[in-house]
Write a structure and sequence with these properties.
This protein is α/β, with parallel strands linked by helices. It has 2 domains: about 5-140, Rossmann fold (3-Layer(aba) Sandwich); about 145-200, Orthogonal Bundle (Arc Repressor Mutant, subunit A), CATH 1.10.10. Helix content is about 50%, strand content about 15%. The protein contains 10 helices and 5 strands, in the order βαβαβαβαβαααααα. Strands 2-1-3-4-5 form a 5-stranded parallel sheet, sandwiched between helices. Helix 2 packs parallel to helix 3 (about 65-75).
Length: about 210
């Protein structure tokens, strides 16, 4: 399928890579295109496969995840990384985010959570568990909207329903709801009317032709 989300897995444990690949490949819109066990191997493989989303273990032998992410993003700025971790040490989370990670998952999470995160990151959003998001916010997580979030907000300001937004952007209606949740959080509002009002006040959207 041409519209499949291409995923790369970077983890030094074969059993982890195999397990993740099995879960991901069960989804019709996802496919694992490459696996790597080290950061250096990932840097070599990335240009050959150009994945849409890369899952990367926080702790890698040799070159760590932050270095690997930063190195790849220097050549491929639009690359998207989700960090996989077994715990939530503040400094590690912050370093990964500063390097360019846009998602963070715990390895013990349910399979559905992994799949949802991959889809959201591929669509242009960030994905952090609530506890991690709170810690990043405490360290001044940038609140700017992504391009896709801005597109959703513009259509929202035009009075479009969730279904109409989904059709306009060719995404699922459930994905629109996720984007709205993120937008409300970033704008610190509670609903559609407040979001539009705040967006207009801050000049985040322009309804003039």
């Amino acid at each position: 399928m041409n519209n499949q989300i291409r995923v790369m897995i970077i983890d030094d444990h074969q059993i982890v890579r195999t397990g993740l690949a099995a879960v991901i490949n069960m989804e019709s819109d996802l496919t694992v295109v490459a696996e790597a066990s080290t950061g250096r191997e990932a840097i070599e493989l990335f240009p050959r496969h150009l994945p849409d989303v890369t899952l990367i273990d926080l702790r890698l032998p040799g070159m760590d995840s932050s270095e690997t992410i930063a190195s790849i993003k220097r050549q491929y700025p639009s690359s998207k990384f989700i960090v996989l971790a077994t715990y939530d040490h503040d400094n590690d989370v912050h370093r990964a985010f500063e390097a360019g990670a846009v998602g963070y998952l715990f390895k013990g999470m349910f399979n559905a959570e992994f799949i949802r995160a991959i889809r959201m990151v591929s669509a242009g959003s960030r994905y952090f568990p609530p506890k991690i998001a709170e810690r990043l916010n405490a360290r001044r997580l940038p609140s700017e909207l992504t391009n896709r979030e801005r597109e959703v907000l513009i259509l929202l300001a035009q009075g479009k329903s969730n279904k109409e937004i989904a059709e306009a952007l060719t995404i699922a209606e459930s994905t629109v709801k996720w984007f709205l949740t993120i937008i409300y959080s970033k704008l610190e509002v509670r609903g559609r009317i407040q979001a539009v009002t705040t967006a207009l006040q801050r000049r985040l959207v322009n309804l003039e032709k």
